[in-house]
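Tutorial, part two.
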Amino acid sequence: MEAVFAKKEALRALGYKIEAEYQMDTVKNAAYWAKVDFSAYPAYPEGLVDKAEIATWYHPEDSEEPLAYYFGTVTDYAGVPDGFVEFHIPAADYAVFTASETADTDAKEVTAKKVADTWAAIYADWFPAHPECKKDATKMYFELYIGGKAEIYIPVK
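Running the prediction step on this input gives:
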């Protein structure tokens, strides 16, 4: 497994906030979107330009707000439509791992398994083999789906 190191500018996304169990293992629940019934959520509004889909687990520090899963689209769409939340991923340096090159042609379950397997390998194999690479826990980890590619972004120092 190879990582590409990249600086990513800040991203703005609109999407859905899905409450989760407080003690949920977020690595074991990678590609959580595959378990969500999105028919219960509003459709993306007309005129929203979907640059990429993004998924992340988030628990604000110094907050009573519970762990939540965010899934949405990276966009410059003005405003926040009813039923949506806005979330921001700050700029950071990342180790980027490609989980799938063909996410748009894979069945949802196949893509989700590739993403989950990649998350597991990052922690079980890649980080132990690269002790010089330190995670930056002050930044956000996320999955990014662009066209046919599924990537995992791990913030690093």
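The helical segments are 108-129. In part three we will examine how such features are distributed along the chain.
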